[in-house]
Amino acid sequence: MSATLGRHVNDKMLSFYMKTPGGFDVEFGCEGLEVDDSDWIARESTAVSLWGHDFSVGMREQQ
Q: Would you say which domain of life the source belongs to (predicted)?
């Protein structure tokens, strides 16, 4: 696991990140918002997560 369970700010997805054998991260998530393209308004968010997604967990495992 490269980051703990957390919830995204923008799409409310509940997810965690894991390291692949090839060395890159894959995010696995659920409960994301469904977007209707006809009325969706793009926004920029300065926060990544409402809570969680502690990436220092993955850094500790590499040491």
A: Bacteria
